[in-house]
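[Q] Does anyone have a clean structure-token version of this?
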Amino acid sequence: QEGEDVTLRTFSGLNVFTFSCSVQSIFLAPRFYMHLTFPQQVQATALRKAVRVKVGLPVQIEGLPEPGIITDISVDGAQITTNSVLGEAGAKATLSFAFQIKPTNQEVLIQTDATICSMRELPATKKGGPPRFSHGVLFTDIDQTNQVMLQNLVYESLLSLPSGA
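[A] Here you go.
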């Protein structure tokens, strides 16, 4: 309602911003929206060290018979979906994956060790099928050249997003 104090939180991809303000006015037509007072203070809490983007890169994991899929990636880590458990939090894994750099379509092969930060079971893709597993990993030994290549992949992916997404 008008005059009501509200606390808002918004996520930028790297940080969560929190601020308090008041509702000045509410509009129902032609769209539902409201005007808020300008916040006196904005608090930022770091959620991630690096921007993550959605991808679908096949990844080979040492010791697993079939590849997994990197579902999102940043310069320092990734989310990997597999049909088998890689290990518990703190375990090490050796990964290799490739991607192309634009505009030359040069293929970059990344081979790195990673530390598993999290693991959770996902629902099966088919009813009655086997579960899948999602792992958050932190890359531990990527050289500076490959970090630049990963940064390029992240920026290219961000640029290819439709505006407003």
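[Q] Thanks! Anything notable?
[A] The chain is about 10% helix and 50% strand.
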